[in-house]
Amino acid sequence: MKDLLRTEHLSRADVDLLLATSAEFASKPLRSETALHNKTVAIYMTKPSTRTRLASESAVAHLGGTPIFIRGDDLQLGRGETISDTAKIMSGFCEAIIIRTFKQSDVDELGAAASIPVINGLTDDDHPTQLLADWVTITEKFGNEIKGRKFVYLGDGNNMTHAWLIMGAIMGAHVVAATPAGKWAPDAAVVAKAKEIATQSGATIEVTNDPEKAAQGASVLYTDVWMSMGDPESERAEKVKALSPFAITDHLMKLTEKDSIFMHCLPAHRGEEVAATVIDGPQSVIWRQAFHRRTTIQALLYHLTRGELKGR
Question: What's the maximum distance between 2 C-alpha atoms anywhere in the chain?
Fold first, then answer.
């Protein structure tokens, strides 16, 4: 497995290895401080970023490498140079590429043309590095025994919903996506893929339009902002109205298990997708999630550059 382009490309063995290495990097950040010594990693972002940028640059530095941050308008891509040509140039200078952009097809094309590892740092369809950070955090809280637990995402059926369902399927978990029906539901093809993986892993994949039913007995309630980058402002009022019943409130948290946690990939809008009393309350683990963005990207760089991930 040369790249991490989509969450679905990971095997359970890959995820277990990455989570274990991430946990080691959490306690010993400089454990492999020469792994990328005298090497560079390109970090190409056409979308603004806080966590992914900081996590990526610090992960490279912790491995002894030099990060090269590139904005969307810094390359000749903006003047018509092809993704394929750009990938070949980057491959001659760098040890790996981390890309955060809009179109999944651009990431797929970059991975196909590059001779070095390409890591998907976020697209409109998927967010694999976030889900690895999420599952390190979940494992820290609940250990490896997740049987009988329910892991619930509420809100927009977006890239986070897609990655949540796919990763939950890989992990053999009971995962739920609670979203409005219609235009803000998760992509049917992604749900089908999650169910296909679940037949092999023993996972339970559930999609519902009932937030209270979803929250009942859950171990995790997770959400994301309702208006993502690129969403048209003309849809705001309609979208907020549709998503309002899926806001994570104190009421919904009271329906969960006693040891439940609240998760959010950030940035957050308090009073919209989540109540301030929830996100800033004792069940929230959002800062630990954010911390693990670095440990998991560090683990990905470490294992992909060594050719140690096998894929599905």
Answer: 55
Region of residue 40 (phi > 0: left; psi between -120 and 50: alpha; otherwise: beta) = beta
pLDDT at 235: 85
Q: What is the distance between the alpha carbons of residues 54 and 31, in angstroms, rounded to a whole number?
A: 19
Tokens matching residue 298 = 């560090």
| Encoded amino acid at 70, one letter | I
Q: Which of 71, 69, 38, 75 is nearest to 56 (CA)?
A: 69
- Residues with Cβ within 8 Å of 188's Cβ and at least 6 positions away in sequence, in order, are none
DSSP H or E segment with residue 176: strand 174-178
Give dist(CA 111, CA 4) in Å, integer. 9
CA pair distance 296, 130, nearest whole angstrom: 8
128-287: CATH class: alpha beta
Q: How far apart are CA 87 and CA 110, in angstroms?
A: 6
Catalytic residues: 100, 127, 130, 224, 265, 293
Express each pLDDT in 10-24 by its tens digit. 999 999 999 999 999
* pTM, to two decimals: 0.96
Residue ranges covered by each domain of the chain: 7-127+290-305, 128-287
- C-beta separation of 263 from 220 below 8 A: yes
Q: Look at residue 228 and tell me whether its pLDDT is greater than 90.
A: no
* CATH no., domain 7-127+290-305: 3.40.50.1370
Q: How far apart are CA 54 and CA 266, in angstroms?
A: 14
> What burial letters (b/e) apply to 52-68, b meaning 16+ CB within 10 Å?
bbebbbbbbbbbebebb
In the block, which residue shows the tokens 């970059």?
A: 110
The distance from CA 27 to its chain's CA centroid, rounded to whole angstroms, is: 22
The closest alpha carbon to 266, from 295, 294, 245, 289, belongs to: 289
Beta-carbon contacts of 194 under 8 Å, excluding residues fewer than 6 positions away, are 165, 166, 168, 169, 175, 203, 205
